[in-house]
Amino acid sequence: RKLSDEVIVSETLKLCGVGESAVADKIKDMLETQTNPTIAPYAKIGEVHLRITAKAASGEEAKALIAPVLSELSRRFGEAIYTSQADEMLEAVLVKLLKKQKLTITTAESCTGGMLCARLVNVPGASDVLNLSAVTYANEAKQRILNVSKDVLEKYGAVSEQTARAMAEGAAAFAGADVALSVTGIAGPDGGTKEKPVGLVYIGCFACGETEVIECRFKGSRRKVREQTVIKAMDFARKRLLHRA
Description:
Blueprint lengths: L6 E10 L3 H7 L1 H6 L4 E7 L2 E10 L2 H19 L3 E3 L6 H11 L4 E5 L5 H7 L8 E6 L3 H8 L3 H7 L4 H15 L3 E7 L14 E8 L2 E8 L4 H23 L1
Parallel strand pairs: 5-6, 5-7
Antiparallel strand pairs: 1-3, 1-4, 2-3, 7-8, 8-9
Helix pairs in contact: 4-9
């Protein structure tokens, strides 16, 4: 500040559900013609962050330069943007949405082993929306705690759309929750087959009486597959709640 007459101001948009290359393609024209402000994309696990930076004589002028860029990025990415706060995490946004809609949530986890619940518990006040979670790693636990039928497990397998659906609905019933997230998959490095390769994950989301399941194909190490699963699950629930609002 002592050496410059200009002020530098930055704003951040955080996106989920859009890959780094897709983001770059979608803003290629903006990146090629940028001068002031500038846009800098940063790839994170399961997310992309866009930092918009402007220089001006004052903070107010810098923010005025940034405003139309933020508006255009919001138009292009829509609900993929989960926050414009640099220090706000995805789990905090999800908990905030649940509180706003006066809903409770539970999780039923297999391959993530409690990571999803742990992310929610990172948020102060999470106890207002979360009262219990189940880690049902073994099929016996899925049957006993979540009421997943033996027939479903034998016919479709633990890693299947049908099991993810049954897990979500069973968790909601067991916890008496309005929303339930279930995850079941093959995190690797072993256990994959041609039909069900490493990285295959099914995420179920029960929300106020309706259940949807998505199939995901993640790449990377065991840790990265699990981390991507957690991000995808939270974003899945966030978007379901946005459509409900």
